[in-house]
Task: inverse folding
């Protein structure tokens, strides 16, 4: 059902049961899946690919031109998965030549005033809280959560099931399954409550805790810790995921908190 006061370009591909409220604008080269609700005063620009049963609230701008001076008008897109909610005044840029797309997965919640810059890749079931600012090329694993008013440096990677405290400045990569807090952002334990809620067993959580005890609390450098983890712990999905994340970190990972950092 499309309101007469909304503008929809005739070349946009809109499923038959999409609702578009008044004063929204949908450009050409846009695709919107079944059951999605587009609230009033939403702007959906060229290259948007929006899935099924999404909700996009007033003031959101989807698939805007990247805020990157190197962008030369290349044909890029912004992809939003099924069942994702985009709250008021969120801005999402489309990709650049780097990845050619910005991606937000299924079942995500992007809260008000958040910004998702070009070439970001957000996994499934993620939560980006109010006023979070993601710079370009940021990657978030499934079930990751970023607390409100946090700012994430470009190219940072956030592992699956990680939880970052509100108001954080995220300059380094945040490994899977951890909580991160304080300033500078530091390891604050394993996200055990979140893992239990998602069905992780006590044995799996204990293994993850043992890995991070070796990495953050045993006095080893990262190379020594990785070797020790690989030698002493049997292969498992969680162990291997952590090792692969650490070995492929481009910006380096957060460290354990030290009282010296507060001085």
Result:
């Amino acid at each position: 059902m499309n309101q007469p006061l909304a503008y929809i370009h005739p070349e946009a591909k809109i499923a038959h049961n999409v609702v578009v409220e008044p004063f929204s604008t949908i450009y050409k080269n846009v695709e919107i899946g079944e059951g999605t609700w587009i609230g009033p005063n939403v702007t959906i620009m060229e290259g948007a690919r929006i899935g099924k049963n999404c909700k996009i609230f007033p003031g959101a701008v989807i698939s805007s031109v990247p805020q990157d001076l190197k962008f030369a008008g290349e044909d890029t897109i912004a992809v939003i998965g099924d069942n994702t909610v985009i709250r008021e005044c969120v801005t999402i840029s489309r990709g650049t030549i780097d990845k050619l797309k910005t991606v937000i997965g299924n079942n995500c919640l992007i809260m008000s005033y958040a910004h998702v810059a070009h070439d970001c890749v957000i996994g499934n079931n993620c939560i980006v809280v109010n006023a979070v600012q993601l710079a370009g090329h940021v990657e978030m694993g499934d079930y990751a959560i970023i607390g409100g008013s946090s700012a994430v440096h470009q190219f940072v990677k956030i592992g699956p099931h990680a939880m970052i405290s509100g108001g954080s400045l995220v300059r380094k990569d945040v490994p899977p399954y951890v909580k991160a807090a304080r300033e500078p952002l530091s390891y604050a334990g394993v996200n055990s409550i979140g893992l239990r809620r998602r069905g992780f067993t006590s044995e799996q959580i204990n293994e993850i805790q043992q890995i991070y005890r070796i990495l953050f609390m045993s006095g080893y450098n990262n190379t020594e810790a990785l070797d020790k983890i690989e030698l002493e712990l049997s292969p498992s999905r969680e162990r291997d995921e952590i090792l692969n994340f650490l070995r492929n970190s481009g910006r380096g990972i957060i460290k354990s908190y030290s009282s010296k950092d507060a001085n």
About this structure: The chain has two domains: 7-137, 195-257. The mean pLDDT is 96. Residues 195-257 form a domain with the Udp N-acetylglucosamine O-acyltransferase; Domain 2 fold (CATH 1.20.1180.10).
